[in-house]
Amino acid sequence: MENIDLLVLRTVRDWLVAGERVLLATVARTWGSSPRPTGSMMALREDGRVVGSVSGGCIEDDLIHRYTTAHGGSAFSDSAPQVVRYGVSTDEAHRFGLPCGGTLELIQEFNPAWQSLDSLLVQLDAGQLVRRRLKLDSGKVMLERTATPEQFSVDGTQMLNTLGPGYRMLMIGAGALAEYLATMALFNGFKVAVCDPRPEYIETWAVDGVERIVGMPDDVVRDFAVDLRTCIVALSHDPKLDDLVLLEALHSPAFYIGAIGSRRNSQLRRERLIEHFAETEASLERLHGPIGLYIGSKTPAEIAVSVMAEILAAKNGASLPSGLSVAQAKHSIESVASSS
User: Fold this and answer.
1) pLDDT in tens, 25-84
2) DSSP 3-state assignment of 176?
């Protein structure tokens, strides 16, 4: 499943090339609670077809009515971008399904130039990070390559949206847990690759849409072009493989690095990396292990849910209470049990 931003942009480009009239709406600002974060996009075709979302559905319904049913598509004529705000009053917030009186502001682009979108998609497909600068008075778009992800921003003159290649997951170890985790990652828009030099594992891989890589993990990480939208998860349970990938991953810009294992094995791994491979407590701060959030998981499917939740939290910059970590939660449970 493709990253939703890329899917929206690709769909808008294809509709425009086919001669359709299209509205591209982007969440510019939010106040209070809102269903979708700033930068979220949706595309609306003049016949009412929609891709992407800017709310839980009610605002999409209003846009469809406003620009298709109510106006017969005439509102899709070329014009400068427009700013529209939903949920200013509590009544309106409830009407549009915005919780707790939330408010959001949309920037609407009418029939954006397909050539600019095509150029943007070519760069994104090549792995580039691109800043899309939209002038609000004219609708002019400028594309600028950048090496640093930036927060979405908008002021009275322009909207800046830094877009990058889709998020990627590299897993080491092609076991049952990896199959469940890969399935969840695909549904969350990640491109997924699995590496395992052991033929008895990699040759029985059964999840479609996942790139299979045969090779030593450290070589694979070096060749993977790891960037800020990459997560690396060691799942082989073989220290010879997992340690190799971690040694490379810890010195990469990956946003998440984790390894499967019990609390004891995770501690032994940390000691091993420090004693034999010159890592330090500081360099190991980025290493998650035991991986996942504590949900009492026992089966590979349940463990995959907890691991995917932790990865998504890291991706979204969510700060989690320490008690949610597997190690801390189990320690607390044991402390309570021993004192009772």
Assistant:
1) 999 988 766 667 889 999 999 989 999 988 877 788 888 888 886 555 556 677 789 999
2) helix
Which residue bears the tokens 């992800």? 149
Q: What size, in residues, is the chain? A: 340
Q: How far, in Å, CA of 101 to CA of 97, rounded?
A: 9
With H, G, I as helix, E, B as strand and everything else as coil, classify residue 180: helix
CATH level 3 topology of 168-334: Rossmann fold (3.40.50)
The closest of 217, 220, 251 to 234, measured between CA atoms, is 217
Helix (H) or strand (E) holding 7: helix 4-17
How do residues 173-190 score in pLDDT, each as one tens digit?
999 999 999 999 999 989
Say if CB 171 and CB 182 are below 8 A apart. Answer: yes
Q: What is the CA radius of gyration of the chain?
A: 23
Q: Is the peptide bond before 199 cis (omega within 30 degrees of 0)?
A: no
Question: pTM of the entire structure?
Answer: 0.73
Domain boundaries, the chain: 4-163, 168-334
Within a 10 A sphere around the Cβ of 30, how many other Cβ atoms?
A: 18
List the Cα angle 232/235/239 in 5-degree steps: 105
DSSP conformation letters of 197-224? S-HHHHTT---TTEEEE-S-HHHHHHHT
Structure tokens at 144: 């600028």
Q: Average pLDDT of the chain?
A: 87
Confidence of residue 332 (pLDDT cuts 50, 70, 90): confident
| Whether the Cβ atoms of residue 310 and residue 292 lie closer than 8 Å to each other | yes
Q: How many CB atoms lie within 10 A of CB 51?
A: 18
